[in-house]
Design brief:
This protein has about 375 residues and is α/β, with parallel strands linked by helices. It has 13 helices and 12 strands. The model has no long low-confidence stretch (mean pLDDT about 95). The protein binds nicotinamide-adenine-dinucleotide (NAD). Nicotinamide-adenine-dinucleotide (NAD) binds next to α2, α4, α5, β8 and α6.
Length: about 375
Amino acid sequence: MSEPITVAVNTSSRSYDVVVGENLLDGLGERVRQAVRATTAFVVTDSNVGPLYLDRALSSLATAGLSTASVTLPAGEQHKTLASYGTILDAMAHAGLTRDDVVVALGGGVIGDMAGFAAATYMRGIEVVQVPTTLLSMVDSSVGGKTAIDVTAGKNLVGAFLQPSLVVADISCLSTLTPYVFADGMGEVVKHAVLADPDLFVTLGARPLTQEADPSYLAEVVADNVRIKRDVVATDERERGLRQTLNLGHTIGHAIEAASGYTQGHGHCVAAGLCCVARATEALGWSEQGIASRIERCCAAQGLPTDSDLPHEDILHQAAFDKKRHGDSVNLVVPVRLGLSEVRRTSLDEFAYIVDLGCGTAAQE
Ligand SMILES: NC(=O)c1ccc[n+]([C@@H]2O[C@H](COP(=O)([O-])OP(=O)(O)OC[C@H]3O[C@@H](n4cnc5c(N)ncnc54)[C@H](O)[C@@H]3O)[C@@H](O)[C@H]2O)c1
């Protein structure tokens, strides 16, 4: 078994370690005890992850001398609600949690976002440790401090920034994911590679990442992604500039996701959005020639879609409601070349033209 990889994250509000490796759950308690001064660890998990990993997490925390309590929520984005948030807060209060205690988010991005938001607001803020169990949450949502819940008007409309005190990414947990949920995380991995790591992009094309991959390769790719996100977040913690480039593929991707009625996974839609935007911006001369087909090949190699056949008017309708819209324009992230993207303010009319140019136009093999 290879040694865990530690990535240090420094932001203006907090410095913390992201530890990536195999079988880390059993040593979780010791790492939490070293990272935070808490008496009680309150674990938030969901109905899929709990039966698989909660006992191991709790017993490790108890062995390290922490008192423990937990709450298990029903799994799924449809439960990322005010009601679930209320359930977490009530359970924290019943457990007698104080400002000196810690919340441990054990699960995918849904649990990480909700537990993080509960920690950010309980008694005006207590510490949170993220223990991501999906690929997406390891490479993306557990790092950077964004927390959120959904409301009926839209996804992630209510939230707060709270950097975690520690992130423990146990890649052994990835073995129990469904292949679809694993591939969903790959959408963000390809996006990160396009944004900031041409070498990783080439590696992924030649050696697609699967759940069965050699654990040290899996851990390296996760750690590479954490570093990419870390570097962006450290420069722009509150998404005023550079952090917006992390939305590469997301303007069209989110619109596809919403237009599909959320039947298609987020990462799958991001991959499709990434390919659509690359085809359009290459055709406009805003991106280097050949980039679109390179991105398409990399997405396809990971089993991700490269296009969407949804009606353009549905995609545009959803884009017009995107929370990142500014008046009658959207900030579109353009992949200028591998390793360089830039944000371009685009009118909704221009955006409609881009959707026409890029969506539903993938070359057939
Ligand atoms: N905060 C951020 O910066 C950020 C960034 C990207 C996405 N997000 C959010 O992340 C969420 C999506 O995260 P996700 O894709 O991890 O979804 P998720 O948390 O719903 O997990 C997907 C499914 O996998 C199950 N699961 C999780 N870990 C498992 C494991 N190890 N074994 C078996 N099953 C497991 C879950 O119960 C769920 O059914 C969205 O709500 C999105 O808004 C947040």
